[in-house]
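For practice. Any example?
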Amino acid sequence: MTDTDTDVLVRAEGLYKVFGRRTHDAVERLRNGTPREQLDGATAAVIDASFEVRRGEIFVVMGLSGSGKSTLIRMINGLHDATAGRLQINGQEITTISDKKLREIRRTSISMVFQHFALLPHRTVVDNVAYPLELQGIGQAEREARASEILDLVGLAGWGDKLPKQLSGGMQQRVGIARALAADTDILLMDEAFSALDPLIRREMQEQLVELQQKLHKTIIFITHDLNEAMFLGDRIAVMRDGRIVQIGSPEDILTDPANDYVEQFVQDVDRARVLTAANVMEKPITVVADSAGPRTALKTMRDAYSSAAYVVDRNRTLVGTIEDRDAIKLVRKGERSIASIIRKDAVTVGADDVLMDLFIPSVESKLAVAVTDADGRLVGVIPRVTLLAALGPGPGATEEITIPAQPVPTTVIDQVLEASEDGEPLAASALGYEEAR
């Protein structure tokens, strides 16, 4: 996605939020390098924050308590005025507009999901979801119909006539999400939306949010103090510390290339298997043979790569299957010129976006490095088992336990086969030390 004006829904440039006395003077002192701890009578919550949120992405702002993340989201929602800097919502500057215009933007462009649900206790579930439509002046029949559709979307079909107190915490938060979706705004703000839930329910809600996003493509700004949650949900993450944004990047960027010691310490305990993807760790495939190649060419490719097997691709680099060296040796002995008869349709493949957690079983099942293919089935990379383990940070000696299922035929044996075939004298199987039948 390009960073054109239509792609950016939220743009912040040099935002400051200072509470207390002589706030503008405090901003100037901060700009001149004064630490925020040395401001007299003023508290700097957000300092020189600049970022862009693109249409259709989940942008996560994360940090510990006191980092300024909740103040930042309240500035986006118009609940806090900026002390200095610029803030645009869908191209509209909101730091200088009238209160009436700001209320209109908040009603039509921004919805919010709160940490503690903030449901209306004496209204039914369907009436809670329909409430923003009521504020927009939509008739009762239409708003109830739309609310029922959204309840179905979040997995609460049949619960519309219940009161919030009759629902579990996870279900109440689904009502909160449904209410925000009902408003059909461009931007969805979520302030620690899942932090009040039990761990198992929290994970379920995270997964449901990802599923909803795949269907709805909303622009979501998600606030959290949980790095694993940020890594799971975020297309990009802004890490805050002491009011400042110290790094913005993809989950992979944050994990593999932390901007400073603070971020590096922050990511030490992240579950890398749920963050890194096949694309992050894959290597260029080396042992690859064209389906039009002969067995001698295939053997030479495997010999050069010290491998007992190879991937076979067609002219478009679409993965066709695999071959093994022993089968190729038999074809050379028979004088065959095509490898078509020995291609096995058993290649273990994964997608470039698959997380490492999902690669362990394919890695165990594959005789070769796991093949990474694109949406059209083209071979784009491979992941050797040792690379997979190294990406997860194995302890000392972990690689010593790695075993290779199929040992390659010794290079000297392959050389004998190739040399003999060139002389027109195929070697007997007994001379190679292999039986005819495997």
In short: Confidence is low (pLDDT under 50) at residues 394-407, 423-438. The longest helix spans residues 199-216. The two ends are 52 Å apart (CA to CA). The first strand starts at residue 8 and ends at 20.
